[in-house]
Amino acid sequence: MKESDVNEEFNNLKSQSELMSERIGDLRDEVDKVIEENSELKIENEHLRELIAGKDGKNKKKQQLSMSKKNLEKLYNEGFHVCTQFYGKRRDSNSSCMFCTDIIYGER
């Protein structure tokens, strides 16, 4: 093999590996989005099940909350984040936040 052929082959491999690295990064971003959406849907599903169960199921859960968690729940229901990541910021279109709901309803 000529030196120019080796250099050309090396440059081709380098280009291909850079392209593959970029594609892997894009796929990783997509997987992260899907995982986040899945977590949000699980939380929303849990809330919908509580609503379907009726007031009795929700009242029992509220009775189990401490006074501080009830205060956090009140702020959350008014449309504010109570999680450490976004504390005090208004939730977009009152969308659910898995971090907030974990703080309020999580097993701690």
Automatic annotation (TrEMBL):
Q: Its Gene Ontology biological processes? A: DNA replication; negative regulation of DNA replication
Keyword Transcription: yes or no?
A: no
Q: Which GO terms describe its molecular function?
A: metal ion binding
Coiled coil located at which positions?
A: 24-78
Q: Which Pfam families match?
A: YabA
| Native species | Fructilactobacillus fructivorans
UniProt keyword annotations, A-Z: Coiled coil, Cytoplasm, DNA replication, DNA replication inhibitor, Metal-binding, Zinc
The name under which this protein is listed is DNA replication initiation control protein YabA
